[in-house]
């Protein structure tokens, strides 16, 4: 296993990720996740060999890891190319990524690698993201989330030495917010802001938002005006904020940042 332009931080993260792989190999989680995400029947011999190696802390069969610029990886956090057998990480993203993000992306791309090794054709949907979501959430993934990932496209393009290479990739998460219900002080109806998370859900996320407008906190509505909300790993559900607000007064939500990875 190798990576370009090694640095102490990445070396440490890779060692911690290997410890996770060893744990998942020993407790059977890795086999279970691979069978479900990759639609495997039984335990293929190739997978059994890898599980035995990783359980013994032998990682010689892991794919190489290389760093690419954000432009060369089309802005994705990570990618896997079956043509090269390598995992690629976004160098710019990696510099500010939290540990949980890095582990989730590496696990997702490992899932793509295993799919290429064990299946004759690409498993439908984003099998890598499902593989990572199962492992990083201790299999706490809803049926609706599984269906979403199994219907999601995961293909992209990376630029390697000036040439385009087809990859399966982990896109950066995106958060959007919309007011889905208007409140009325007269009958106590709440105003509801719905936050929707799309893109990669392999790692947990935190978002910061702020309420502002002509409606005054404390008199027209109750609740914090500056809040951090967390999305658990594998979560694809909408999250709602409710507050009572005066009729004809305005309250809006402003996201202070797109996302912060929660460790």
Please give a structural write-up:
The chain is an alpha+beta fold and 263 residues long. It has two domains: 163 residues, no CATH class; 88 residues, Immunoglobulin-like. The protein has seven helices and twelve strands. The strands form three sheets. Strands 1-3-2-5-4 form a five-stranded mixed sheet. Strands 8, 9, 11 and 12 form a four-stranded antiparallel sheet that branches. A three-stranded antiparallel sheet has the order 6-7-10, with no helix packed on it. A hairpin with a 4-residue loop joins strand 2 and strand 3. The longest helix is centred in the first third of the chain and has 20 residues. It is globular and about 65 Å long. The two termini are 25 Å apart. The N terminus and C terminus are likely disordered.
